[in-house]
C-alpha cells in the first residue's frame, strides 16, 4: 500500500454519490462535526423546524457542547493549556456575509454567543483575550470557572509526564456546524478550546474566518476541525467554498482541499484535519486527511444521523 512521508494511504474511498442527493426544496439541512454534533443538531433542528433563522440555529446548536462538561474540547470542562487555563476560540457567520469571532477568551461558557454579539454590536470582527472578556461581561455574560475535576486531573497528569500526545480523535474535536433554513439561507458557527496543553496564548483556526469557518450565502459553507495550524496555512474552509463556487459538489470540494493540504503542508500527515461542507442546494460533504472522522447530518427525510467520513490516510496512532 502507498505511503505519504511514512503515513499509510487508504485505498480508494472518495466520492460518495449518496451525498449528492438533493433534499426536498426548502427543507432545512444541518451538518456538524463529531459525535457531539448529534445533540447540537437536534437543538438547532428545533429552531429550523419552526421556520427559524439559520443563524439562531447554529448558535444554539453550538451552545450544547459548549455547556456540556463531558465534551472536553469545547467550552466548559475542556482540556486546559499548559498553564492550566482553559482558553476558548469561536466564530460565527450569517447569511449576509457578516462575521464575528472571539479568541483567547477565558471564563465564559458560551464563546460562540459572544462572537455573535461581536458581529452584531461592534464594528469589528474579532475581540481577543481580556478585551473579549470585558465585552462579554458588559453584555450580560457571567464569568465562571470552566475547569472541571476532569480538566484539573488531566492537567496535573500532563505536568507530571510532560508528554505531548499528538493530536488525536480523543483530545481534539472542535465543533463546526452549518445550517440552511427554510428560506434557503446559510449560516455557520465554530467553537473550541483548541489543542490540549497548547502554549498559553495560542490561537487556532476556529476564530479565523476562511480557516475554521466560512459561509457565502450564494454558494455554501464549510467548517473545519483538527489541527488548526494546518487549516490556518491553507484557509481550508474558504478554499472549499471557492471550489463549490467553481462547480464542485461539497464532497468533491472537501476532497480536493484535503489532497492539496497533504501535498503542500509539511507534516500534514501527522496532523489530522477534517472538513464539512454544504452548498446552496442543501447537498453536503465531509472528508479528512485521516480516518475516524464522524459528522452529524440532519435532514427532513433522514432525521439526525452520525456518519463516518472518508479520508486519504489511516487514523493517527497514539
Ligand atoms: N481546530 C481547532 C484548533 O486547532 O484550535
For the record, what is the CATH homologous superfamily label of the domain at 9-75 and 166-313?
(Glycosyl)asparaginase
Per DSSP, what share of the residues sits in E-state strands of 2 or more residues? 15-25%
Helix content range of the residues, please? 25-40%
Could you tell me the radius of gyration in angstroms? 18 Å
Each distinct ligand: glycine
Distance between the termini: 21 Å
Mean pLDDT: 91
Could you tell me the CATH topology label of the domain at 9-75 and 166-313: Glutamine Phosphoribosylpyrophosphate, subunit 1, domain 1
Structural class: alpha+beta
Question: Main attributes?
Answer:
318 residues; alpha+beta; Glutamine Phosphoribosylpyrophosphate, subunit 1, domain 1; 8-stranded mixed β-sheet; 5-stranded mixed β-sheet; 8 helices; 25% strand; binds glycine
Describe this structure in words.
With 318 residues, the protein is an alpha+beta fold. It has a domain at 9-75 and 166-313: (Glycosyl)asparaginase (Glutamine Phosphoribosylpyrophosphate, subunit 1, domain 1), CATH 3.60.20.30. 30% of the residues lie in helices and 25% in strands. The protein is built from 8 helices and 15 strands. The strands form 3 sheets. It has an 8-stranded mixed beta sheet. Strands 9-10-11-12-15 form a 5-stranded mixed beta sheet. A two-stranded antiparallel sheet has the order 1-2. α2 packs antiparallel against α3 and α7 (236-245) packs across α8. The longest helix has 15 residues, at 250-264. The chain is globular, with a radius of gyration of 18 Å. The protein starts with a strand and ends in a 5-residue tail after the last strand. Residues 89, 174, 192, 194-195, 204-206, 212, 225-228 line the site of glycine. The site of glycine has 13 residues, from β10.
